[in-house]
Recover the amino acids of this structure.
């Protein structure tokens, strides 16, 4: 099978109890070694340029990606005003689980080892999803994340987890170290020197992409073998 590149639509029940859908961009290079599903941060979307940089590095290294919107259009319209859904970690985790279920139905993705990449609040959602699907999720990476918001789920994550934090993001460094201490799986808090919370400084996102790809390369490749 050649390279897969398509938009997918995932049916969900929205926060108002109505049927809705979320949209994702699926890319799987030919001969892919694994697939990484992204959970973006507060107020972002599947078009997040920061996550796209990481996805491009993964593609170059032979991994597929799914970047998708965690909120429906109706939820986004409300969230722009209230910001209530971007911090609803349970809702975000459920959307990630729905995306994972959809990947099990998509031709060309069912046999691929799965990793999760979460940013900001999306990192907490990724860890909850990993805790609830220990048989599916093989590795997790958090970028500038709030893993502490995953609460009790931290202790039941089994997938090796890399927590990437900017060296100038003092408060979040502390929160990540505290979260790591609660985890029983293989984990590492990795500090990117000279980076603030959003990794806006030159070269810092590229370093995030390099370290993330290395982590998935070790853990997803070993899972596939």
């Amino acid at each position: 099978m050649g390279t897969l590149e398509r938009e997918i639509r995932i049916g969900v029940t929205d926060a108002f109890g109505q049927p809705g859908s979320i949209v994702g961009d699926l890319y799987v290079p030919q001969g892919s070694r694994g697939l990484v599903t992204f959970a973006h941060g507060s107020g972002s979307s599947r078009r997040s340029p920061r996550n796209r940089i990481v996805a491009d590095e993964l593609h170059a290294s032979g991994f597929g990606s799914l970047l998708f919107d965690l909120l429906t259009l109706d939820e986004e319209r409300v969230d722009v005003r209230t910001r209530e859904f971007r911090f609803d970690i349970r809702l975000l985790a459920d959307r990630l689980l729905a995306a994972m279920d959809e990947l099990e139905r998509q031709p060309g993705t069912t046999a691929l080892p799965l990793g999760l990449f979460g940013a900001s609040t999306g990192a907490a959602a990724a860890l909850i999803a990993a805790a609830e699907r220990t048989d599916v999720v093989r590795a997790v990476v958090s970028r500038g994340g709030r893993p502490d918001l995953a609460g009790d789920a931290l202790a039941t994550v089994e997938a090796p987890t890399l927590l990437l934090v900017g060296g100038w993001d003092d408060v979040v460094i502390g929160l990540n170290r505290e979260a790591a201490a609660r985890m029983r799986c293989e984990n590492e808090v990795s500090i990117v020197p000279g980076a603030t919370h959003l990794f806006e400084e030159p070269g810092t996102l590229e370093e995030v992409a390099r370290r993330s790809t290395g982590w998935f390369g070790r853990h997803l490749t070993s899972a596939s073998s």
Remarks:
- Residues 204-224 form the longest helix (21 residues).
- The chain has one domain: 4-224.
- The longest strand covers residues 4-13.
